[in-house]
Amino acid sequence: MINNDIARQFEFIAGLLESRDANPYRVEAYRNAAEILRELDRNVSEIVETEGQAGLEKIPGIGKSLARSITEYLHTGRMSVFERIRGRTDPVALIGSLPGIGPDLAQRIYDTLGTSTLEELEVAAHDGALAEVPGFGRKRIKGVMDALAGRLGTPRRPTIPTSIEPSVEDLLDIDREYREKANAGMLRKVAPRRFNPTGEAWLPVMNSRRGNWFFTALFSNTARAHELGRMLDWVVIYYDGPDGSGQSTVVTAQTGQMKGKRIVRGREQECREFYDRRRAA
After folding, report:
1. Residue-range definition of the domain harbouring residue 61
2. Do residues 143 and 101 lie in contact, with contact meaning Cβ atoms separated by under 8 Å?
3. pLDDT digits (tens, 9 = 90+) for 38-96
């Protein structure tokens, strides 16, 4: 039965994610989906034929992202999410597959930045980190951006409409939880490759979940954060949800009406409204 075939795919994806120490909530979501499909009394292909992808999304435990993967498998016999995750097990080969990079530059990127996915490379290209890698000038970085836009099928600058981003309330709560647990020594620590000559495992990492959103939070380890001495103030939050993924940075406001408060960069007005609501409550 096709349900069992897809369930096996989801279990394999869960295993791959777990082997890469991915967000445990995401791993659990794939394993739960596999169990749901095995117990489902209808064939998923029948559901798609009669109701489309929307029919799959009605199944408890199957959100938009999983429904999209099921539909893709029914139409093509493959899941692109599986291909992406499998490619990540060899980050140098994955990055080196981009035009104009090759294995030597890919190894240099991995050694310098610790980048292991194309999505992470795209962020590095846009935020200036890639310019720190020897051999990457403006022209080559532009070529990388163009190649990534084609490979990932995204616009030049990866964005998610505000309407489907996590709320600032959730992001600020993740930031609060992360900093509290980091200060209490409750989180697993990793050894970042950048700005860490001794190889010390000092960077706390937290995985968490709010509704359909999966979060990974960690202190910023960028050159700018080190330059300004803000490594333990700036918190980078990666998120993954039914409609896409992205990242936000939460910092302490240094000026203005919100001075001293935690704010999400680029969403200052929403943060102001959030604090106004909380003050009025």
Report:
1. 2-86
2. no
3. 888 889 988 888 888 889 988 998 988 888 888 888 877 777 777 666 655 567 777 87
User: What would the pLDDT profile of 198-223 be if each residue is shown by its tens digit?
Assistant: 888 888 989 898 888 888 899 988 77
Q: How many domains does the chain have?
A: 3
Three-state secondary structure call for residue 218 = strand
User: Do residues 208 and 192 touch, judged by C-beta distance below 8 A?
Assistant: no
Residue 213 in tokens = 């959103």
Write out the two tokens for 8.
Answer: 């096996």
Pair 36, 122 in one domain: no
Residue 90 contacts residue 106 (beta carbons within 8 Å) = no
Domain co-membership, 168 together with 232: yes
Give dist(CA 119, CA 108) in Å, integer. 17
DSSP state of 167: P
Given a contact cutoff of 8 angstroms between Cβ atoms, the answer to whether 62 and 70 are in contact is yes
Burial class (CB in 10 A: 0-12, 13-18, 19+), 219: buried
Strand order through the sheet with 188-190:
188-190, 203-210, 213-219, 235-241, 244-252, 262-264
User: Which pair of structure tokens corresponds to residue 176?
Assistant: 């609060």
pTM: 0.53
Give the Cα separation of 152 and 155 in Å (integer): 9
User: pLDDT of 105-114, one tens digit each?
Assistant: 888 887 777 7
Name which of 109, 79, 112 is nearest 94 in CA terms.
109
Count of CB atoms situated within 10 Å of the CB of 11: 16
